[in-house]
Amino acid sequence: WIKAVDRRSKNQRTAHLLITLAEGEEVERLLTRRRHISVWGRMIPVERDQKIPVRCAKCQCFSHYASDCLETDDTCGKCGEKGHKTKECNSMTTHCINCKEDGHKSF
Q1: Is 18 in contact with 44 (CB distance < 8 Å)?
Q2: pLDDT tens figures, 53-85
Q3: HSE-up of 69 (CA within 13 Å, CB side)?
Q4: Which region holds residue 83: left if phi is over 0, alpha if psi is between -120 and 50, else beta?
Q5: Domain residue ranges of the chain, discontinuous segments joined by +
Q6: Out of 35-39, 79-83, 88-92, least confident range
Q7: E runs forming strands in 1-107
Q8: Boundaries of each CCHC-type domain copy (predicted)?
C-alpha cells in the first residue's frame, strides 16, 4: 500500500499514485506508446496530470486562494449568498457564483 494505514477506508482496495517524471523522450514514449506501467503486477494506465484550477474558498472565484482574497465577507459555494461559509450553509437551493446559474454549486 502507498496510502498510510490510518488514512485508508475500511473496505478500500486501491489508492491514488502520482509519479513525477522529468519531461523527455521516456515520458512521451510512456504517454503515447506504452500507456500503462506495471505496479506490483497490475497494469496501471498512465495519464498526464490534470491540474484542478485554483478556487478561492472565501469568494468562490478562480485563480487565487482564500489567503490572497480581497473580499471582506465569505461567499457560500453552495447557495451563493454572502455572509456565511459553505460548511455552515443550511440552504436547500444551490447557486453557482461563477456562471450565475441556479441548480448547481460553485465547485
Answers
A1: no
A2: 889 999 999 889 999 999 999 999 999 999 999
A3: 17
A4: left
A5: 5-45, 51-107
A6: 35-39
A7: 36-39, 42-45
A8: 76-89
What is the pTM assigned to this prediction? 0.53
CA-CA distance, 59 to 74, in Å (whole number)? 6
Q: How confident is the model at residue 1 (pLDDT cuts 50, 70, 90)?
A: very low
Among 4.10.60, 1.20.1250, 3.90.25, 4.10.240, name the CATH number for the domain at 51-107: 4.10.60
End-to-end CA distance of the chain: 30
Q: CA-CA distance, 50 to 18, in Å (whole number)?
A: 11
